[in-house]
Amino acid sequence: MSVSESIHIDGTWRTAADGGTREVLDPADATTLAVVAEGDTADTDAAVAAARRAFDQGLWPHTPTAERAALLRRVADLLQRDREEIALIESRDTGKTLEEGRVDVDDVTNAFRYFADLVMNESGGRVVDAGSAEVHSVVVHEPVGVCALITPWNYPLLQASWKVAPALAAGNTFVIKPSEVTPMSTVHLVKLLVEAGLPAGVANLVTGAGLPVGQRLAEHPDVDLFSFTGGLVSGTKAGAAAVAGAKKVALELGGKNPNVVFADACATDEGFDTAVDQALNAAFIHSGQVCSAGARLIVEESVKDRFVAELVSRAQRIKLGRGTEEGVECGPLVSQQQLEKTEGYVASALAEGAELRCGGERPKPSEVRPAGGYFYAPTVLDNCHRGMRVIREETFGPLLTVETFSTEDEAVTLANDTEYGLAGAVFSGDTARARRVAARLRHGTVWINDFHPYLPQAEWGGMGKSGVGRELGPHGLAEYRETKHVYENLRPAPVRWFGG
Question: What are the Aldehyde dehydrogenase domain coordinates in residue numbering (predicted)?
Fold first, then answer.
């Protein structure tokens, strides 16, 4: 398979129907990393048709659960076999460090194994007591049908696994469209699905832009479920098109996530060090290009000066560079567009009264290697307030804003003062306070004295404009199923409702 044959339809790798291609750039130096097919509506329609045939006429939806689970486990084993190769692909394509790429592959492996185990441990349905020995009533689960899966550029392989693994475990067929910016690891994943023995037509891949591929998937009449992870604007537009067609819809649309630090978390040297370290991790992992990034530091006023001073000192020492190089802690932003967007947020914050404590610029050529990449220095913006655009909007860059509070109620109010509701954290040395505040936060995931970990067995998703539906956990599997009630009369007899 040549790189430009990145479209996979009905078991065959192919180029785009109109011959279109796209260069995939290495964000570390802006050179061409690969050339992939640029699919369009014709490719999308062909992929959906293949998925439709495979679901309506193929064997996969009727394959015994044990066989589907076994295939998922084979995929997990293949992921570990190719761990270094995939981690390198992910690092080069997204700009993240090689170690982050390795962690992603391990997390993807765990997702496939989790959903394999989940379906294997289920019973044959939920028996419902109908109140009569003459009735057998059971609730069963069936696959939705053809699933359209849209994944983002920041965690392309990980987000693909959160959709592909439960979709296959439930017996669906699918068409997946990765971000046109970072498609390479998804191409590799589909190759592994084929190697693991997935029947032709079950997994289909179209590389291409959101317009027209993503929009066509959202509105296509033969798609039964539309699952999207990405930005609020494009996600709500595509989601509206999907809802108009009465599809099942799941949307994860990002977040503006608070990291609340109480003074009692810093009462000891160890506690202070931990809270500062976690604030750095929350904001600057993958250069802040994380939907759950703790970009809003909300710190108690009595410790704010000391806390921010130490935070700034450490942020200034973060080593930038190509993610595959030894010792690099932060890679580049994913694209020129994202770099310019980050610069725009900093400019607006400064114009609205924020104080720049560090960063706020592209590093000098002598400060980062290689030259020409989309690098931006880790940035801390102090004295921020809710009226600023940088506080209200998801920035997706290495930007950390600082707000302060004096009381617990004020901390909760600030943390919940966002249109989003994906994730948040509370750092406190008082267990009762930490749990009390966590219970009041309107976010889909809340960490206490930690930031960023997730579990495949625990649901992931947000409140408010962070989206609808959940991924991972039992509810993540339920998104890819329809629920059916089967009512069986064991002793049928005339009803005699009508006298004639």
Answer: 13-486
Sign of CA dihedral 114, 120, 121, 127: positive
β-pair partners for 12? 9
The share of the chain scoring above pLDDT 70, in percent, equals: 99
Q: Exposed, middle or buried: residue 480 (CB in 10 Å: 0-12, 13-18, 19+)? A: buried
| C-alpha dihedral sign at 70, 71, 73, 74 | positive
Residue 9: φ, ψ to 5°: -135, 125
Amino acid, single-letter form, for residue 218: A
Show the tokens assigned to 83: 């761990």
Q: How far apart are CA 215 and CA 218, in angstroms?
A: 5
Q: What is the pLDDT of residues 328-345, one digit of tens each?
A: 999 999 999 999 999 999
Residue 485's CB is within 10 A of a number of other CB atoms, namely 11
Backbone φ, ψ for residue 75 (5° rounding): -60, -45
Could you give the CA distance from residue 75 to residue 65 in angstroms, rounded to a whole number?
Answer: 16
Fill in the amino acid letter for 442.
R
Give the active site residues. 252
Q: Is there a cis peptide before residue 212, judged by omega within 30 degrees of 0?
A: yes
- Radius of gyration of the chain measured on its C-alpha atoms: 24
Confidence at 369, pLDDT banded by 50, 70, 90: confident
A 10 A CB-CB count for 281 gives: 15
207, 17 contact by CB (below 8 A): no
Which amino acid, one-letter code, is at 292?
S
Using DSSP's 3-state secondary structure scheme, residue 221 falls into coil
Is residue 496 over pLDDT 70? yes
Rounded CA separation 212/48 (Å): 14
Whether residue 323 contacts residue 101, with contact meaning beta carbons closer than 8 Å, is answered with: yes
Domains of the chain in start order, with CATH, are: 7-253+466-486 (3.40.605.10), 258-448 (3.40.309.10)
What backbone phi and psi angles, to 5 degrees, belong to 126?
Answer: -100, 115
| Residue type (1 letter), 297 | L
pLDDT given at position 499: 85
* Overall average pLDDT of the 62-75 stretch: 97
Using an 8 Å Cβ cutoff, are 239 and 217 in contact? no
CB atoms within 10 A of CB 367: 12
- H or E element, residue 367: none
Query: Cβ(200)–Cβ(149) under 8 Å?
Result: no
Report the C-alpha gap between 293 and 117 in whole angstroms.
Answer: 30
